[in-house]
From TrEMBL:
Keywords, in A-Z order: Signal
Signal peptide range: 1-18
Protein origin, superkingdom: Bacteria
Species in which this protein is naturally found: Bacteroides gallinaceum
Keyword Signal (UniProt): yes
Protein name, entry field: DUF5036 family protein
Length: 248
């Protein structure tokens, strides 16, 4: 056999080996394997109400299910672009299960809270009965939490101090920016700490990942106020507490 042919066969073997390794599901250590029998509503995936019905579909009343096909994985963050309450069970496919009531619209997009669990799921194979008919499926699933380094921890306190400005409308102002790609929701709650009236004179402006606090008071409105806001990155969100203090 000539050298070129030997090299070709060697490279082909490497290619086949690499493809085989890529096709194998990467099962995490905390994954749980369970056999789900069709229409057994008492046997579900984790703490969800998801079971397999007689049509060989995952179905639920309280959750949302996403089908990633064969391109998913156990390290998949919440993805809520195509979420349903019933999807076909297909061996070799990955799925994701979230609690529907925890999905919120944050800054114009559906998102899942960073402090809430969900399930990544892999369908390993069908289960057959004595008549060789499909009676369920072998499922592997793992409980997961969102992984988003771009977002602060849930209920993080962010202290910001207003600074004097020379502006015909405002006497104090300060801006705070999150990482690129983070969006701040326009709905927020504001309240004063005891003895403060700062919120009465406060204007808040939100532009993408930056929030600006400005005070209109030239009459000594001192003290501090708290603004509770939601911030999102892709399909995950967190809640933050801004503690805004006047320089007066």
């Amino acid at each position: 056999m000539n050298k070129l042919a030997t090299t070709f066969l060697f490279m082909a073997a490497l290619f086949i080996s690499a493809c085989s390794n890529d096709d194998e599901p990467q099962i995490p250590a905390n994954a749980i394997t369970v056999n789900l029998v069709n229409n057994d509503q008492q046997k579900t995936i984790g703490g969800s109400d998801v079971y397999i019905n007689n049509a060989n579909n995952f179905t639920t009343n309280e959750c949302g299910i996403v089908d990633f096909g064969s391109k998913g994985g156990f390290n998949q963050n919440p993805n809520l672009t195509q979420i349903a309450q019933e999807v076909a069970v297909t061996p070799g496919n990955y799925y994701q299960i979230v609690l529907a009531s925890d999905v919120k619209n944050i800054a114009g997009q559906r998102a899942y809270p960073i402090n809430t669990n969900f399930y990544n799921v892999f369908v390993d194979s069908w289960i057959y009965n004595a008549d060789n008919e499909i009676s369920g499926a072998k499922i592997m699933y793992a409980e997961c939490y969102p992984d988003k380094k771009e977002l602060p921890e849930w209920d993080s306190a962010i202290n910001v101090d207003l600074k004097p400005v020379t502006h015909e409308e405002y006497v104090e102002s300060v801006a705070y920016s999150f990482a690129n790609g983070v969006k701040i929701d326009s709905n927020y709650d504001i309240s004063d700490f005891e003895g403060s009236e700062l919120s009465r004179y406060m204007d808040i402006d939100i532009q993408d990942n930056t929030i600006t606090f400005s005070s209109r008071s030239a009459f000594g409105a001192s003290g501090k106020t708290e603004i509770i806001a939601f911030v999102r990155h892709e399909s995950v969100f967190s809640r933050v507490r801004f503690i805004v203090k006047s320089a007066q």
